[in-house]
Structures are given as structure tokens and as C-alpha cells.
Design a protein that fits this description.
Layout (H helix, E strand, L loop, with lengths): L28 H6 L13 H29 L3 E11 L2 E8 L5 E6 L4 E7 L1 E3 L6 E3 L5 E10 L2 E8 L6 E6 L5 E6 L25 H8 L10 H8 L9 E6 L16 H18 L3 E4 L16 H14 L4 E8 L9 E6 L4 H18 L3 E7 L2 H4 L5 E8 L3 H7 L2 H19 L1
Parallel strand pairs: 1-5, 11-12, 11-13, 13-16, 14-15
Antiparallel strand pairs: 1-2, 2-10, 3-4, 4-8, 6-7, 7-8, 9-10, 14-16
Length: 430
């Protein structure tokens, strides 16, 4: 940690001597005037025509957005609605059922490290009320996630410990179409799908006693929704594919950040987590921009850059890339080595979306690493204030705590941290 770059002490409640470095630089009033915080104290009549033009353009853009949403609504009437995901456990097996309102086609694939079975339901949209994240208490399957991958694809991801010969996927047609995923043993009816990348058409199967029993606990067939309801449902559709995500590995180069009891540097932890996070997000179809890709400063001035110049350079990377969201990754530190936990920060005067992003990432990260929840807090940190998109700063855990330092310095810990943050981002996008 380079104390020469510390411009303002950050004082959390009851922990006034928490350590900090350049990435914690608060945007002081004197800096605000030099950067992007200039406020209009009076209105010159000469700018009224410009303001009128801006308002008119905004109204036109809004009208276009409404038209686009209506067009998508029309397309969705010919799409399959994925109404929900059900998970059941019997005789040591796990069955996952993807309920749909029409016959479905799908693609399947497998992702590694960790092993995930992916089913992409074609020409479909997921109901907003459907549960998007399901924890499963089984040694076979640990988690099931569903999201709108793109405008016409619903992606279901199953985290599993089962090898490729221990799971089967098949579809059932009829009054209540569905895709069935069995982990552990072969399904008692239905045709095994081969692990190919090509779309699978529905395979009509004879109705069996097992199918009738399975259908008995399903809801009644839903009646077609009116156009207004469909529009409201479609307004909630989001996804990961095509998203541009800026990841800022905190510190780097001459700035080590905080240093743990065994000498582990914060800049190293944040870089490793960011690289793994990039891999996970890109596997889900996102474009990821790292503010730094090695152990260097981001500013062209290198080690000679001032704190503000270095931090502004990180913001510039995200702003020039027109990222959808910005995440600055850090590890916390405190003089008391027993202190631990995860905290997420957002700009105090920023958008509601920034707070939502902070809440989503913090919650998912805590679920992944099992540490103390230190909450979501507002702040005035430079990097979350001078970015043009929803932006947060995440304190993974306390590098000053021996146990948490050990966790963050392990390959298992890095993967858990990255997966937790990735899950939080996925939750944010829906």
C-alpha cells in the first residue's frame, strides 16, 4: 500500500483504522470542479433552444423504444414460454423439469471447471415469475440457473458433479410439453439425447403411468395471456449474451494494495479473480473488458501518474468501451486480523441500478465463499463516480485475516470468488 497516495481517510463504523490505498481516493470538492461534477447554478436563456432539441430527441427515442418492444411482443406470440423449473429427488437421482407452454427444440452442451450442463431452449422466453436460481441439496447437482440468454433463447445451466455418462436429457410432448434432465440413472421413459450441439426437435412419446403421475402435481394449463400482460412479461426479459462488462482489477504495478500476513499482495488477488471472472462471463456470451491485463498501472504515465490520473484512466477504459456495467475488484484490510467479511459499494448519488448490482454481487459472493455479510454501502469512491454506467466496488474479503488470505490465495478460493461474482452479475441481468 502506498501511503503517499492516500488523500482521504475512509472511516467505516466502529473500524476507523481500516487501511486503504489509491483506489479508495474520494472525489473531493476540489476535484469535482476539475472533472465531471460541474453543476449548473443558473440557466442562460441562450441554451433554451438546445435544451428543447435534447428533449425532442429524447421523446423520439422513447417512441422508438416503445415501437421496438411492441415488435418483439408480436414475435413472442409465436415463441414458447418457459413457465418454470422444477427439481425433484428420488432414489438417489435428481430430475430437473423445464416446463413449457408449447413443443420445444433445444441445444445441449457441457462447460468445464466447474462442470455445467447447459440446455438452450430455442425460440423461447422465460416467464418473469419463474424462479431463476435454485439450490439443490444433492451430491449430484448443486445448483440450477435459468436466464434469457438472448432474445430467442432461454438458457438453463445445471452445476453437477456427474460425468457425461451419468446424465440424460429428453423431451416430452403432449398437453404439457417439457424437457427432462435426469442425473444419476437412466430415465424411465423418454429417449436419450446425444450430447451434440445441434438443435433437437421434440420427440413425441407415448403417455406412461409415470408421466401421468408427474403431471398430476403440475398447475392447470394456463390460458393465453392478453397482449398487455404479454408486453409486461416481456419487459422483464434480459440476458447475459451481448453484454459488455468492464472489470477493474484493483491496484497493480507500483501499487501493491493491501498486503496479507504471509506477504500476499492485493494486486495479485484481484488480477487472478478478474481473469477467472472474465473466462466465466465470456462462456456465458458476454464481452469482458479488463482495465489492466498484467501487473502494471493503467495510466500511460505509469508509476509517475497521480492517484486521480490513474483512477481516471481506469474509468476511461470502461467509458470508451461503452460497457453496460463496471466492477472494481478489491480485497479489504484492517489492523485487527480477526475482522472478515464482504462489502459492496456504490456511488451515493448514483443510479438505483448501481445499488441493485452491488446487492446482487454481494449476496452471490457471500453464498459462494461463506463469509460475513458486511452489507452494501454508499460511497464517494472515484472509480464508481466517474464511470458512465452502473458501477460498483467489491471488497471480496479481508486479506488481513489469515484465514481469508489463505482462501483468496488458493485456486479453489479464486474459482469460488469468480463464480460468486459471475452469479451476481447473472442475477442482476435477470
Amino acid at each position: 500500500m502506498k501511503s503517499v497516495r492516500l488523500t482521504q481517510i475512509f472511516r467505516p463504523n466502529k473500524e476507523a483504522n481500516r487501511t486503504h490505498s489509491q483506489s479508495y481516493v474520494e472525489d473531493l470538492p476540489t476535484q469535482c470542479g476539475q472533472k465531471r461534477c460541474v453543476k449548473m447554478a443558473w440557466l442562460n436563456l441562450s441554451v433554451l433552444p438546445l435544451l428543447f432539441t435534447m428533449i425532442l430527441v429524447g421523446l423520439i427515442g422513447f417512441g422508438s423504444a416503445v415501437t421496438g418492444e411492441a415488435a418483439f411482443s408480436d414475435r413472442a406470440k409465436d415463441m414458447t414460454k418457459v413457465s418454470g423449473i422444477r427439481v425433484g429427488k428420488t432414489d438417489g437421482n435428481v430430475r430437473i423439469v423445464i416446463d413449457a407452454e408449447r413443443s420445444v427444440s433445444y441445444k445441449q452442451s457441457v462447460l468445464s471447471n466447474p462442470t455445467r450442463v447447459v440446455v438452450d431452449v430455442q425460440n423461447a422466453w422465460v416467464a418473469p415469475e419463474a424462479k431463476k436460481d435454485i439450490a439443490v441439496d444433492s451430491p449430484l447437482v448443486s445448483r440450477v440457473r435459468v436466464a434469457q440468454f438472448d432474445a430467442t433463447t432461454v438458457r438453463v445451466v445445471v452445476e453437477t458433479s456427474v460425468n457425461k455418462d451419468g446424465w440424460k436429457i429428453f423431451s416430452l410432448d403432449g398437453e404439457k410439453p417439457r424437457i427432462v434432465m435426469d442425473f444419476g440413472a437412466a430415465p424411465a421413459g423418454g429417449k436419450q439425447a446425444t450430447p451434440a450441439q445441434e438443435a433437437k426437435k421434440p420427440v413425441p412419446l407415448p403417455q406412461t403411468d409415470e408421466d401421468e403421475e408427474e403431471a398430476a402435481d403440475e398447475d392447470e394449463v394456463q390460458q393465453p395471456r392478453d397482449s398487455d400482460q404479454l408486453d409486461r412479461d416481456l419487459s422483464a426479459i434480459t440476458g447475459m449474451k451481448g453484454r459488455r462488462i468492464a472489470i477493474d482489477p484493483g491496484h497493480g504495478g507500483s501499487d501493491s494494495g493491501a498486503i496479507g500476513p504471509t506477504g500476499i499482495m492485493e494486486k495479485s488477488i484481484t488480477m487472478r479473480v478478474s481473469r477467472e471472472l472474465k473466462r466465466l462471463l465470456e462462456a456465458e456470451g458476454a464481452t469482458v473488458i479488463l482495465t489492466r491485463t498484467g501487473d502494471t498501472e493503467v495510466s500511460e504515465k505509469g508509476a509517475s501518474a497521480t492517484s486521480v490520473e490513474e483512477l481516471q484512466a481506469r474509468c476511461d477504459v470502461a467509458n470508451k468501451a461503452k460497457a453496460d456495467i463496471f466492477l472494481s475488484i478489491h480485497a479489504d484490510a484492517f489492523t485487527n486480523r480477526e475482522v472478515k467479511g464482504t462489502t459492496a459499494y456504490y456511488y451515493a448519488q448514483g443510479t438505483k441500478q448501481s445499488k441493485l448490482l452491488a446487492d446482487s454481487v454481494r449476496t452471490a459472493l457471500i453464498d459462494a465463499i461463506g463469509t460475513v455479510d458486511r452489507g452494501t454501502q454508499s460511497c464517494n469512491f472515484y472509480v464508481v463516480k466517474h464511470t458512465d454506467m452502473p458501477a460498483i466496488l467489491v471488497e471480496i474479503s479481508f486479506i488481513s485475516n489469515p484465514d481469508e488470505e489463505k482462501m483468496m490465495n488458493s485456486e479453489t478460493g479464486i474459482k469460488k470468488i469468480a463464480q460468486g461474482i459471475a452469479d451476481g452479475i447473472a442475477d442482476y441481468f435477470g
